[in-house]
Amino acid sequence: MAKHLSIFVENRPGKLDGITGVFAQNAIDIRAFSIASAGEFGILKTLVNAPDKAYALLKAGGHTVSLRDIVVAIVDDAPGSLRRLLTALGQAGVNIDDSYGFLLEKGKSAAVALEVDAPAKAEAALRQGGFTVLSDAEVYAL
Amino acid sequence: MFWDKRFETMDRQELRRHQLEHLNITLKEAAKSPRYGQLLKERGVSELKSLDEIQRLPFTGKQDLRDHFPYGFLSVPLDKVVRMHSSSGTTGNPTVVFHTKGDLDNWAGLVARNMYMSGLRPGDVFQNIMGYGLFTGGLGFHYGSEKLGAMTIPAGAGNSKRQLWFMRQFKTTAAHILPSYALKLSTYLAEEGLDPRKDLHLKYFYIGAEPHTEAMRQEIERIYGVKAFNSYGLSEMCGPGVAFECLEQNGMHLWEDHYLMEIIDPKTGELLPDGQEGELVLTSLRREAMPLLRYRTRDLTSILAGDCPCGRTHRRIARFKGRSDDMLIINGVNIFPMQIEATILAMPEVGNHYVIEVLKENFLDRIHLKIEVREAAFSGTLPALESLKERIAAALNTELGVHVKVHLVEPGTLPTAEGKAVRVFDKRNQQ
Questions:
Q1: Residue B409: CA atoms inside 13 Å, Cβ hemisphere, count?
Q2: Which residues of chain B have a CB within 8 Å of the CB of A59?
Q3: Residue B153: in which H helix or E strand, if any?
Q4: Which CATH architecture has domain A2-68?
Q5: Confidence band of B368 (pLDDT split at 50, 70, 90)
Q6: Are residues B312 and B381 in the same domain?
Q7: Same domain as B222, residue B280
Q8: Three-state secondary structure along chain A?
Q9: The pLDDT of residue B424
Q10: How far is A113 from chain B (nearest CA, A)?
Q11: B316 with B379, same domain?
Q12: How wide is the angle at C-alpha A52 spanned by C-alphas B413 and A2, nearest 5°?
């Protein structure tokens, strides 16, 4: 199962700097990220090319971080494709906890990263719905 | 003018004779408790020939009450006990104080004496804007004003709209109120377009349970057009009523027919002469269920020199200067930082890196807890963090009885604890 990083961040100016600094100094490539805030603090979720290395570096730097399973699917960059993906998951009874998408090739394809309550079930449902679900190596090579 | 003229104006010599008589009665009764029974036997103390001989007795502290929880200081059989009061929480045993019917009657009598001294009479309407329950502030004044014969409104704390409604509907003339809440309530009255001096019927405020300055008292008097009287008490001695201001408003008469007072150096335990600032030590002279000998209040004050023009012979103590321990008074509720620490350490999801800040917000005290999230327990979801925050706040609320604002912070952002680090920052006086 592919993983992304989930990092606890205080909601204050400059707080993300420490994290992006670690990535920059260690040639970690950020593919995509999302930030969710709950007022004074939030969580930065980010997909990187080397999650285990990034995790170890952040941990050593004193950050509160965890690795979480994600499912990454490829959708067409066309109207209605996200809806099709969500329908497939909904019909399979999969609940999405968190998600973000990013463009791969304009007019052609985009990737959707999903944190769900039942990853294996989600993968099966997506494949059945005709979506490409990426392997770990494919996710990190995006 | 006097509720109990004989005792309030008793000649000093006679008062001292009365004190010695009741000190010896107290010693005899205290010896019936497991703790004092053992202690007095060890020291070979039975009858004292003079008040000064009290120095042969050791001090009693809050820790002793905790160590001999719950009944170690109880001097009467349980079937004579009709009530208990307790400090907040369950950490390291709260301090529990027991009362007989006689204790409650004496206590109500002292509070009635104080309220009468301020001018309150039957026909007055007294609104008790203080928490009821285990905290002695609410029930203490409640029974005192009933004993005096004033109509008592057991309004309880908070809810400005309702407090104002009572004040207007029943023409409240007197109130027991936290000084900080009096200021907060005044902003509500202003919002409602009311002038408390014209639109209300207030004459007397009893302010206590938390430290406040003379300037704050005068501000309250100005806003409400009342006389605001300082009140002092502690649950170990009964509750409010131990010392109170007369119309002179210059120091609080400590009722020496009920309590024997000493002022000591909190570091050495040495007795200090009148006028010198130190820690107030009290021996109860009339308490039945749980008499306490040389109890260290941890409150810092001094005995005022000279006679009071009001005619009362009981010596006055000065406005309190603070505490000789780390107890925090949060909107009248007594809290020890140790309670916060124990609550936090019982939760595996958070580390022991935390800082407590106490601030004034809209006139009221507010505890802020900044705590680092432990990396090992971090699952990486926002709902889990929010739930953790709520659980910390709920656990603290259960332990302390006050609401604490919890702030989750990143590891390494709080000062590192070296040795016995200062974790409590009381910023109320810097604001």
A1: 19
A2: 375
A3: strand B151-153
A4: 2-Layer Sandwich (3.30)
A5: very high
A6: no
A7: yes
A8: CEEEEEEEEECCCCCCHHHHHHHHHCCCCEEEEEEEECCCEEEEEEEECCHHHHHHHHHHCCCCEEEEEEEEEEEECCCCHHHHHHHHHHHCCCCEEEEEEEEEECCCEEEEEEEECCHHHHHHHHHHCCCEECCHHHHHCC
A9: 87
A10: 15
A11: no
A12: 120
Question: Which of A6, A8, A15 comes nearest B373 by C-beta?
Answer: A8
C-beta separation of B24 from B48 below 8 A: yes
What predicted TM-score, i.e. pTM, was given to this entire model?
A: 0.83
Q: What is the ipTM of this complex?
A: 0.82
What token pair was written down for B172? 């409240």
Q: Which of B324, B358, B383 is the last residue of a domain?
A: B324
Distance, in angstroms, between A68 CA and closest chain B CA? Answer: 7
| Closest CA–CA distance from residue B416 to any residue of chain A (Å) | 13
- pLDDT tens, A47-63? 999 999 999 999 999 89
Contacts of A97 in chain B (CB under 8 A): 381
Q: Do B375 and A59 touch (CB under 8 A)?
A: yes
Q: Would strands B174-177 and B204-207 be described as parallel, antiparallel, or unpaired?
A: parallel
Confidence of residue A137 (pLDDT cuts 50, 70, 90): very high
A111 touches chain B (CB under 8 A): no
pLDDT, tens digit, 9 for 90 and up, residues A77-121: 999 999 999 999 999 999 999 999 999 999 999 999 999 999 999
Q: Are residues B128 and B157 in the same domain?
A: yes
Residue B359 and residue B392 share a domain: yes
One domain, residues B171 and B291: yes
Q: For residue B289, what are its two tokens?
A: 């269920």
Domain that holds residue B163: 5-324
Spell out the domain ranges in chain A: 2-68, 70-140
In Å, how far is B353's CA from the nearest CA of chain A?
Answer: 13
Asked if A62's CB is within 8 angstroms of B386's CB, the reply is no
* B354 closest CA partner among B405, B427, B402, B430: B405
Looking at residue B407, which CATH number applies to its domain?
3.30.300.30
Q: Which of B381, B407, B413, B416 to mutate to test the interface with A (most CBs of A within 10 A)?
A: B381
Q: How far is B344 from chain A (nearest CA, A)?
A: 18
Within a domain: residue B431?
Answer: no
A79 to chain B, any CB pair closer than 8 A? The answer is no
B373, B381, B382: residue with CB nearest A64: B373
What is the pLDDT averaged over residues B61-79? 96
The helix or strand, by DSSP H or E, that contains position B425, with its residue range, turns out to be strand B424-426
Between chains, do B411 and A62 touch, taking CB under 8 Å as contact?
yes
Q: Is B218 helix (H, G, I), strand (E, B) or coil?
A: helix
Question: With respect to CATH, is domain A70-140 assigned 1.10.3210.10?
Answer: no
Domains held by chain B: number: 2
Residues of chain B with C-beta less than 8 angstroms from the C-beta of A66: 378-380
Asked if the Cβ–Cβ distance from A63 to B375 is below 8 Å, we say: yes
Residue type, B24: N
pLDDT at B420 over 60: no
